[in-house]
Amino acid sequence: PVQILWVNLVTDGILDITLAMEPKEEDVMNVPPRRKEARIINSEILLNIFIVAVVMAIGTLFMYYRASNNGSTAYAQTIVFTTSRLTVEVLTKYLKDQFKNNKPVDDHFVTGYRGGYLPKLRRRIEKGLRDREVMGVVSTSALELGIDIGNLSSLILCSVPPAQANYLQRIGRAGRRDGNALNLTVANARPHDLFF
Predict the structure, then answer these.
(1) Residue 30 backbone dihedrals phi, psi, to 5 degrees
(2) What is the pTM assigned to this prediction?
(3) pLDDT (tens digit, 9 = 90+) per residue, 149-181?
(4) Which residues contact 176 (CB under 8 A, 6 or more apart)?
């Protein structure tokens, strides 16, 4: 409960301050409404959004780089949460194909994890994560709760989780040992994702 209050304070507090400090607009009730054909997001707003996004991305990556133990992110242990079993299999195959000609010699350097796998295979993947034999895992919500999966340093969410509790649980999977983690959320075209 305290962590949820902290997240709410940090994510909403700054916005509340900006609204409270916004200068008063004179005669705001006498301003005519905008024209129907006028765009809500104009080129000036788009440029502002782009600049803020670039600065935030560079700042986040810089802070992650500085906070990593040895300054190298080449072997950051990563988990990717997806929304379906099919996406787990497709993304795992794609990543294995990408790594085939490079560093990983072992087929389990990147692996999938989902419901439907045999318990023995799932335990082997969990052990590989704890022992850093598995450096990347693509998972459904099967790894969201109650499984010690070691010291992950980065996390990617492919879609915004359906509830805040799911979101907090998933982003909490990375950075458990030293408190440093890089969490990225990639929104897709679902209405829920577009809302956030």
Answers:
(1) -95, -5
(2) 0.59
(3) 767 778 888 887 877 788 888 877 777 776 777
(4) 151, 152
